[in-house]
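FORM 7B: Structural annotation worksheet

SECTION A. Query
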Amino acid sequence: MYINSYQQAVPVALTIAGSDSSGGAGIQADLKTFSALQVYGASVITAVTAQNTLGIYAVHSIPAAIISAQLRAVLQDLDVKSIKIGMLGEASAVDAVANVLDEFSSPAMVIDPVMLSKSGNALLHPDALLLMKKRLFPRATVLTPNLPEAAALTGFSEPTSLSEMYQILGPLHELGVPWVLLKGGHLPAEEQAVDLLSDGKRIFEFKADRFVTKNTHGTGCTLSSAVAAGLAKGMDVEQSVREAKKYISVAIAAADSLLVGAGHGPLHHFSLLWGQKG
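SECTION B. Predicted structure
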């Protein structure tokens, strides 16, 4: 099997996820994030969605053979330093990804367990979740669930306080992942949003000002891909999360300036770049 041996000029990160036709989440958000953080982005598309800021109207799953072909083509040629896995949807997609990854040395991997859209659409079949736990979670470097996802993954009640977030970290580590980034954005509104990063022994709190905006479409995708970008650059997990939190805070703070769509609009992935003059 041919695998390149040359040095690439920039680190490469790969996203494996679904396509968002409105450009705010999924593959599109991931590639924007990689670019904003000066990482070259490659992609494997697992599903095509018809969606906008108001909701998801149709989902077409990509055949497993095409998912496998995309992933194998990228890994055979590009020196991928990190992988972000988002929406997989079906068990066949999970198997396709896992089977190809078996053929290669796995780089750092961030898994964002995408189960529901912001509008409440189911994006992961139950049998696919079981396979993810068995075949992909053991490969993960970092798992990045939000609070509803953490509850679905563990069978525990959804945390409604910071203390309950601490309590669910143990059950999440029992899924076999070395690092968990538990996102606290769904907690009842406080002045600050708190995420917890845990390696099973140490817990780091990441606090950020909570911005009052409806334009948060793609927040989870963006954060996980920002972490993957840091890992691709050679940062450790804690530094990758710290830098990712800084990036997403700026992107959320600038989201209202985009004025995209009538519903939950996207983050401003390029706010720092577009804000530069000359």
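SECTION C. Observations
DSSP finds nine helices and nine strands in the chain. The CA atoms of residues 138 and 176 lie 5 Å apart.

SECTION D. Sign-off
Analyst initials: ____
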